[in-house]
């Protein structure tokens, strides 16, 4: 499956495992990379010393390329960037901030840079900033999301039409059929989050993994746009947020309700009532917890099967 993405990252399949907070540690990243995709360590939930340890363990567990996802809105970003450079990581995905901030610095150290966007406007800014590829993430995605609520089906061709660098589709991609659809829309590869969150190697709590596979249509919604848009499972914490909206709460009250450590409480510690449970709409189709390598192979075999069905028709 050689194309611009496999060449850019020196991987077998154009499938990237999203760098999800509290889910994407070295075990998941190395498992995906060993299986032929690109694994990412999610640094957003890590202190600098923890990130360094995770990178070292990932290097010991795989001789294949892997990367680090760096959400730019988190503290200690300068320390994270320095550790990434010192440890010789060659691929960085940045998100939740301006691509101009760190792209040139990273590229000066021979690092391939990819930035996550949710609109055509910011895709153009990424290309102007010199990134090597773009992740175009639709409204269906879990975690931090776009305020415009543009779906992946609309976003990918819109971005493809305005940039020449490789485009990686994200949001609502959980199997090979969705991968094929995104490639038909102009994507060069796909980034998969929720499906890998429900893997054996995911560092998420088993309670959260079980909640993912029990999700159904309508179980998630995009909320907290006034702070930072995030798609959540509708639990007790979410109901508190909705009650605040009903009484017209402002950003300060919403921040107070969110507090600190909500995502860790839910996804890493397994508190399904009070925790923040970030996951994509595609969770409604996930019904089992599998090894990451099995998930990747199912995506690729599903992609090939879907392509054959189209050719047969």
Topology:
Layout: H1 4-9, E1 15-17, H2 26-34, E2 39-42, H3 48-61, E3 66-71, H4 77-86, E4 91-95, H5 103-108, E5 112-117, H6 120-129, E6 133-137, E7 143-144, H7 152-160, E8 167-170, H8 176-184, E9 189-192, H9 194-197, H10 206-213, E10 220-223, E11 230-233, H11 236-246, H12 251-258, H13 262-268, H14 292-312
Parallel strand pairs: 1-9, 2-3, 3-4, 4-5, 5-6, 6-8, 8-9
Antiparallel strand pairs: 7-11, 10-11
CATH architecture of the largest domain: Alpha-Beta Barrel
Could you tell me the CATH topology label of the largest domain: TIM Barrel
Helix coverage percent: 40-55%
β-strand number:
11
Beta percentage is 15-25%
Trace the largest sheet across and list its strands.
1-9-8-6-5-4-3-2
3D shape: globular
Biggest sheet descriptor = 8 strands, parallel
Mean pLDDT: 95
CATH superfamily of the largest domain: Aldolase class I
Alpha-beta classification: alpha/beta
Spans where pLDDT lies below 50 across 5 or more residues:
none
| Number of H- or I-type helical stretches | 14
Supply the CATH class of the largest domain: Alpha Beta
**Number of structural units classed as domains:** 2
- Distance linking N and C termini: 22 Å
């Amino acid at each position: 499956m050689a194309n611009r993405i496999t060449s850019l990252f020196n991987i077998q399949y154009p499938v990237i495992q999203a760098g999800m907070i509290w889910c994407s540690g070295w075990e998941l990243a190395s498992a995906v990379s060993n299986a032929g995709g690109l694994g990412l360590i999610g640094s957003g939930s890590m202190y600098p010393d923890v990130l360094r340890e995770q990178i070292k363990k990932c290097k010991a567990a795989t001789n294949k390329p892997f990367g680090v996802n760096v959400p730019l809105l988190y503290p200690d970003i300068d320390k994270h960037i320095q550790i990434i450079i010192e440890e010789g990581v060659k691929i960085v995905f940045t998100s939740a901030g301006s691509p101009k901030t760190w792209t040139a610095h990273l590229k000066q150290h021979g690092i391939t840079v990819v930035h996550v966007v949710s609109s055509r406007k910011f895709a153009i800014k990424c290309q102007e900033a010199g990134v090597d590829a773009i992740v175009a993430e639709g409204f269906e995605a879990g975690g931090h999301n776009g305020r415009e609520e543009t779906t992946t089906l609309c976003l990918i061709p819109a971005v493809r039409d305005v940039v020449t660098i490789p485009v990686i589709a994200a949001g609502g991609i959980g199997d090979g059929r969705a991968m094929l659809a995104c490639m038909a829309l102009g994507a060069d590869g796909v980034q998969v989050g929720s499906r890998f969150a429900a893997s054996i190697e995911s560092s998420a709590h088993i309670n959260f993994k079980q909640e993912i596979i029990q999700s159904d249509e309508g179980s998630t919604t995009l909320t907290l746009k006034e702070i930072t848009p995030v798609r959540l499972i509708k639990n007790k914490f979410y109901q508190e947020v909705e009650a605040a909206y009903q009484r017209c709460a402002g950003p300060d009250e919403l921040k107070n309700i969110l507090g600190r450590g909500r995502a860790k409480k839910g996804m890493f510690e397994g508190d399904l009532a009070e925790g923040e449970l970030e996951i994509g709409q595609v969770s409604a189709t996930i019904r089992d917890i599998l090894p990451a390598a099995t998930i990747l192979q199912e995506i690729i075999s599903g992609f090939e099967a879907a392509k054959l069905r189209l050719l047969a028709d």
